[in-house]
């Protein structure tokens, strides 16, 4: 098209052809820019999914750490540090994207950047370069990328396999890259971001964020890979001694089971040795039985033996049990005192050492069950002592018995009160006239209600007034009207009985004195 003498018409045709080619190139460029935008959105969506998956994995780890802190607590602490460091890195990259695209807001309807307008490189170039030199922002960006694998290694240590660590280091490598267009090695930042359309740089930054999320996921998965490998090996099984009970009577057979900590119904041991004797192995366990031996603590030892990869794997058995003599005395105690009191319900606990509470019975006058094994109620009657007989049934259905004598005491005498106060009470005469006479049991271990049913009122120089009930009557009012300031009113012969206990009267109640002010 450039040679020879051309007619004006031919020149016009050639010019139109050039315009057409330019328009095709322009359209292609717009399509590429839009493709970057679509790719960016796909990566953003993928990041959200990965973030949700990572959060779910972490919550599962947190639950395991709560249930088994010894096994998972350290892993949870490492993952927490890793996630915090990754979040800081992710947010730094997000801040770069936000700053660079502030002139190009996302369409709220489509969720897309205006990709065709983001064909210039100035926003990223001005952020990452000051002239021909890298800006402080670019240096901080590079330091975060370059240091990320090292920080992961410092946090997780040997929890990450070497092959996984190499993959992470390669993913965040910032070595110079050979450019065919330049014919030389270019710095990593120049090769990836210098003079690129803004939408392409934003997409690359989003991909970097995806690498951060993927690394976080890979590390959490890798940290538990060793656990999965170990769980698949027979060396992960732990034999556990489970006796029928923790202590045995002399002469009894010690019975129980040796079970594996990880029970597998398809796993049967080649052999099981317990205290030097071979016992029959079943699916994941073995039953044993041998004489208890002498009184004291004894060890249970042996091994579970399996074939694995052509060799025998022996898992040690370690346990112990205690032999105790047959019980010949019961343990009987009053929950609140060393005696039982007449007039109240005395709670009691009765047991036999080495015998379950439901195999123990007790009998005595006034003794009854409190509703659950081992708990009783004692309401003693007349006399000064009561004998409690106890019988226990051993595992072989033989009986053992014992008895205990308890003293019976009456409830101690209460102290009289005016307005709930004891001793010498002071106040105006009008207050006494409307006050009630009461009684208290001082330092008594039971909560009981007391009713005053009568008392005597005496003012010096006046006749004694005998009152029925606990209120001042008209005779009291007449006597009190002649009393003056400083006079003492003695309330004595207070008759007290237990509330709701019929006519059970308490011993003599101590008097109370009211001094008129």
Structure description:
Helices cover 35% and strands 30% of the residues. The longest helix is centred in the first third of the chain and has 60 residues, at 8-67. A five-stranded mixed beta sheet has the order 6-13-12-8-9, with no helix packed on it. Strands 23-28-27-25-26 form a five-stranded mixed beta sheet. The protein has a four-stranded antiparallel beta sheet with strand order 5-7-11-10, with no helix packed on it. A hairpin with a 2-residue loop joins β1 (129-130) and β2 (133-134). By secondary structure, it is an alpha+beta fold. Residues 31-225 form the Gliding motility-associated protein GldM N-terminal domain. This is Gliding motility protein GldM. Residues 230-325 form the Gliding motility-associated protein GldM first immunoglobulin-like domain.
Rg on CA atoms, Å: 47 Å
Describe the strand arrangement of the main beta sheet, using strand numbers: 6-13-12-8-9
Number of helices: 10
CA-based shape: elongated
Quick one: biggest sheet? 5 strands, mixed
Helix content estimate: 25-40%
Q: Runs with pLDDT <50, length 5+?
A: 17-28, 228-233
Q: Strand share of the residues?
A: 25-35%
Count the beta strands.
28
In angstroms, what separates the terminal alpha carbons?
133 Å
Summed over residues and divided by their number, the pLDDT gives a mean of 83
Please give the domain count. 4
**Strand pairing plus helix content: what structural class?**
alpha+beta
């Amino acid at each position: 098209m450039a040679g020879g003498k051309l007619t004006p018409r031919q020149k016009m045709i050639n010019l139109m052809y050039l315009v057409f080619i330019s328009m095709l190139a322009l359209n292609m460029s717009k399509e590429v820019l839009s493709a970057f935008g679509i790719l960016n959105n796909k990566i953003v969506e993928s990041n959200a999914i990965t973030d949700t998956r990572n959060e779910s994995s972490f919550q599962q780890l947190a639950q395991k750490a709560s249930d088994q802190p010894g096994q998972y607590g350290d892993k949870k602490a490492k993952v927490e540090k890793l996630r915090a460091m990754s979040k800081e890195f992710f947010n730094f990259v997000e801040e770069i994207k936000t700053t660079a695209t502030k002139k190009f807001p996302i369409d709220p309807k489509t969720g897309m950047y205006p990709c065709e307008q983001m064909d210039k490189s100035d926003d990223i170039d001005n952020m990452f370069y000051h002239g021909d030199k890298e800006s402080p922002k670019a240096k901080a960006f590079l330091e975060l990328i370059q240091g990320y694998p090292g920080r992961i290694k410092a946090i997780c240590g040997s929890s990450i396999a070497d092959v996984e660590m190499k993959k992470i280091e390669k993913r965040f490598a910032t070595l110079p890259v050979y450019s065919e267009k330049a014919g030389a090695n270019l710095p990593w930042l120049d090769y990836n971001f210098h003079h690129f359309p803004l939408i392409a740089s934003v997409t690359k930054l989003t991909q970097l964020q995806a690498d951060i999320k993927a690394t976080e996921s890979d590390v959490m998965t890798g940290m538990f890979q060793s656990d999965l490998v170990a769980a698949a090996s027979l060396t992960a099984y732990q034999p556990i001694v489970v006796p029928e009970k923790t202590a045995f009577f002399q002469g009894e057979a010690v019975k129980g089971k040796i079970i594996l900590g990880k029970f597998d119904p398809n796993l049967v041991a080649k052999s099981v040795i317990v205290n030097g004797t071979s016992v029959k192995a079943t699916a994941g366990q073995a039953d044993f039985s041998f004489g208890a031996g002498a009184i004291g603590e004894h060890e249970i030892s042996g091994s579970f033996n399996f074939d694995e990869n052509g060799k025998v794997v022996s898992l040690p058995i370690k346990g112990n049990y205690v032999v105790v003599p047959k019980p010949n005395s019961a343990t009987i105690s009053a929950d609140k005192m060393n005696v039982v009191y007449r007039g109240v319900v005395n709670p009691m606990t009765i047991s036999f050492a080495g015998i379950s509470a439901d195999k123990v019975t007790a009998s005595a006058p006034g003794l009854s069950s409190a509703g659950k094994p081992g708990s009783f109620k004692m309401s003693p009657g007349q006399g000064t002592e009561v004998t409690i007989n106890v019988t226990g049934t051993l595992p072989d259905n033989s009986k053992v018995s014992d008895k205990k004598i308890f003293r019976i005491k009456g409830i101690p005498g209460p102290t009289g009160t005016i307005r709930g106060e004891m001793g010498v009470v002071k106040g105006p005469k009008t207050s006494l006239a409307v006050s009630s006479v009461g009684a208290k049991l001082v330092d008594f271990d039971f909560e009981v209600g007391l009713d005053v049913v009568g008392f005597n009122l005496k003012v010096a120089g006046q006749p004694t007034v005998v009152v029925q009930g606990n209120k001042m009557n008209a005779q009291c009012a007449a006597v009190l009207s002649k009393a003056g300031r400083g006079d003492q009113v003695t309330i004595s012969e207070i008759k007290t009985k237990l509330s709701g206990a019929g006519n059970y009267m308490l011993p003599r109640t101590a008097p109370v004195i009211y001094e008129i002010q």
